């Protein structure tokens, strides 16, 4: 059973019981009031008749016979009265037999009310009827007499029972109407909570951007506002976790991507030293490159952590003045074996007014090597790549397949690849240009890509303005 139905039924039950109790109390009070009015009227009439009887009896002798007393009583009272001398019935016109023992017992138990004219009044059931019995005692001639008078109030009780039944029926009908109205009211009050429930279900289903959108000034509005604030916190937390997961994925991919090129160079030099007998000078030069690349790899992890933003206190940029020509020389030397494998020439064009630049040498080397690696993938064997430096910045131009214009805005996204089959076959992971963009941003520069399908691509790290 729904909560709203339980509330409605409970409220209707309380309402019904209250109505029943109140109706019973009101009917009891009404019956008592009616009986009091009847008693008052009968008491006045009884007093008048009693006075008439007493005046008539005063005119007769003290030894008046009981026959005369009966005559006087019959002349002054009607068929609802009876005359007694003591407890002896003298004349009874009522058709009922009155139980004096019951009368005495009720007097002893205090169930009989008093009359202003003297005497008592009580209710009695007789022959299936409800009687209001009046008992008064007075002196008549030389005799101590008692008059018993009754008023049939059966209709009063019957009317009260009919009213009670009607009231009960009305209470049941009003209870049903009350249940329906309360259901509608609760349904309206419950609507905001259903909206919050639906929003909670959508959030549980992964739609963290949903909100209740309720603007109310009552307590429900305050709950809705707190719910929306909680949803915002949940969305922000989930977004933070998602970004952290993405950074972790990018970190692993970046490390694997960055390790590949220097390890290729190290492997090439090591194989050359093992298999080819080189002059002492070239052996030392090869060992120097191996040592240099190993040192670069030892600091590469910290650089990758900074790129992905996972640890802000480690791997800070080490900015210093770097020779532009020396940076290109080192990039050509490191990429030599990669270029040799692809049978691609690497040229340089320097038209920059400056000879040096400020930056982190390891990150700038990663920038150039990533561009060279991407250029090798896009260029057919026997082609060429050009390292370029001009007034705008440094970068690489290739003359390969190019990038469609609609794809240029997305190629810097991590793991995004224009031609997935070609990139996977070439060992790519879609991180090269993403790393280049981050390296440029760390240097306060921006990455600019100019490409035309079938003609090649120019990727530049544009100097900060």
From TrEMBL:
<dbReference type="Pfam" id="PF00672">
    <property type="entry name" value="HAMP"/>
</dbReference>
<dbReference type="InterPro" id="IPR003660">
    <property type="entry name" value="HAMP_dom"/>
</dbReference>
<dbReference type="InterPro" id="IPR003661">
    <property type="entry name" value="HisK_dim/P_dom"/>
</dbReference>
<feature type="domain" description="HAMP">
    <location>
        <begin position="187"/>
        <end position="239"/>
    </location>
</feature>
<keyword id="KW-0472">Membrane</keyword>
<dbReference type="InterPro" id="IPR036890">
    <property type="entry name" value="HATPase_C_sf"/>
</dbReference>
<dbReference type="GO" id="GO:0005524">
    <property type="term" value="F:ATP binding"/>
</dbReference>
<keyword id="KW-0808">Transferase</keyword>
<dbReference type="InterPro" id="IPR050398">
    <property type="entry name" value="HssS/ArlS-like"/>
</dbReference>
<feature type="transmembrane region" description="Helical">
    <location>
        <begin position="168"/>
        <end position="190"/>
    </location>
</feature>
<keyword id="KW-0418">Kinase</keyword>
<keyword id="KW-0902">Two-component regulatory system</keyword>
<feature type="transmembrane region" description="Helical">
    <location>
        <begin position="6"/>
        <end position="27"/>
    </location>
</feature>
<keyword id="KW-1003">Cell membrane</keyword>
<keyword id="KW-0812">Transmembrane</keyword>
<dbReference type="InterPro" id="IPR004358">
    <property type="entry name" value="Sig_transdc_His_kin-like_C"/>
</dbReference>
<dbReference type="GO" id="GO:0000155">
    <property type="term" value="F:phosphorelay sensor kinase activity"/>
</dbReference>
<dbReference type="Pfam" id="PF00512">
    <property type="entry name" value="HisKA"/>
</dbReference>
<dbReference type="GO" id="GO:0005886">
    <property type="term" value="C:plasma membrane"/>
</dbReference>
<dbReference type="Pfam" id="PF02518">
    <property type="entry name" value="HATPase_c"/>
</dbReference>
<protein>
    <recommendedName>
        <fullName>histidine kinase</fullName>
        <ecNumber>2.7.13.3</ecNumber>
    </recommendedName>
</protein>
<feature type="domain" description="Histidine kinase">
    <location>
        <begin position="254"/>
        <end position="465"/>
    </location>
</feature>
<dbReference type="InterPro" id="IPR036097">
    <property type="entry name" value="HisK_dim/P_sf"/>
</dbReference>
<keyword id="KW-0547">Nucleotide-binding</keyword>
<keyword id="KW-0067">ATP-binding</keyword>
<keyword id="KW-0597">Phosphoprotein</keyword>
<dbReference type="InterPro" id="IPR003594">
    <property type="entry name" value="HATPase_dom"/>
</dbReference>
<keyword id="KW-1133">Transmembrane helix</keyword>
<dbReference type="InterPro" id="IPR005467">
    <property type="entry name" value="His_kinase_dom"/>
</dbReference>
